[in-house]
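Lecture notes, unit on protein representations.

Consider one protein chain, 502 amino acids long.
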Amino acid sequence: MAVSTAIRTIAHYIDGSPVDEPSARYGDVFDPARGIVQARVAFADVATIDRAVRAAAAAFPAWRDTPLGKRSEVLFAFRELLRANAQRFAQIVSSEHGKIVTDAAGEVTRALEVVDYACALTQMMKGEFSESVSRNVDTFSIRQPVGVCAGITPFNFPMMVPAWMFAIAIACGNTFVLKPSERDPSASLLVAELWAQAGLPKGVFNVVHGDKTAVDAILTHPGVAAVSFVGSTPIAKYVYATAAANGKRVQALGGAKNHLVVMPDADMDAAADALVSAAYGSAGQRCMAISASVTVGNAHEALIPKIRERIAKLKVGPGADAGNDMGPVVTAQARERIVDYIAQGEDAGATLVEDGRGLRVRDCDDGFWVGPTLFDNVTSAMTIYTDEIFGPVLVNVRANTLDEALELVNGTAYGNGTSIFTRDGGAAHKFQREVQVGMVGVNVPIPVPVGYYSFGGWKASLFGDLHIYGEDGFRFYTRGKVVTARWDENQTGVNLGFPTHK
């Protein structure tokens, strides 16, 4: 494997400063388009995680006690800095992830939505008050931060997903330790710089890099009160079980196999546009990517040719070129896994309509390339249908009726996102009511909620009680406290009876 001549080192960020000390272990950060190592990232050991958590714990009391108005000022300042540096973030994300710069810019925009919502902390942190619940007794509720929170985030959205966590956690008065993906960690350090410029005190936001060693140290550290995770279902299960066993509140978002059901009455051009965009955007490396279409009745007859027409026009190349539509996948290992799944689909008897394995990109022979791939006549028993491939592979399953399509969607282990394309309001209503999935789109291919609604799936796509960001985010990052107060100077006497409200 070729290695570039100028290798920079990506360090941790703890207590307001980069950690310049050498690490015992490092990981490679690739340029996926060229297949070369462009940087190395320090991997944290248990002592480094402890250092970050201790810094966050030391900063917590002062940040918790910072008035809501002052916290709001810092959030608004960070928001403006994030907006001003949006293109810089997009370029950093594209260079390490491989996605097209314009796609990465969209990720930054969605991150800003959640930061915008977090700026409403003065409204969201309000409690409730009930006067005279008993004679001279009032009861009221308050929301208080939980302490040191940690986020463990995936490679596919190195800017957006961390923002889902840290923006609301910090707004609530918590401190935060972020462990971003070691595959594309640089965006997190720019986030740390901007928080400092916005006036966030030292230690409130910290960044540590690493692999399982770092993750396990976070999950078991007694100083961490809450853990948020986004990643594959097996790891989500592990994170949930381990962190919960160590007394932490946990939200762990897992994998997906998102379906788009196309009814015979749908606008087939709109459906084809939606499927190609949702299946191949970011090379299919999205937890909300549409990886399975379900054509009902004779919908496949018109739809499949239209998808092929659009695939033929897609430009695949380096993410730095905004004229391209799709970039590489993130690593050589990811490419090998995707290619293997394509072979499994062939062997199982699915119809390989478009094969992306032979894609070559000029001047990027060593890049991690897989072209848009399309299967038809897929059955629910095939691995290309059951497994989360996480690449530019769209599989089509044929169903006779909407009920059969619903049975397919509801029969999968995952329940992250799904959509239906139809002109029939009755069919849409039936689908949105009966489908067992957390996020549903009607004539919308990727139903990611706006920042003031919560994001989260059902079944094996979520472990924990609360979804991420939105109102659920404020609930997750705070604890409720109810105060019952009597102010009655004339009360005297001992009463061993159970207190009542009379």
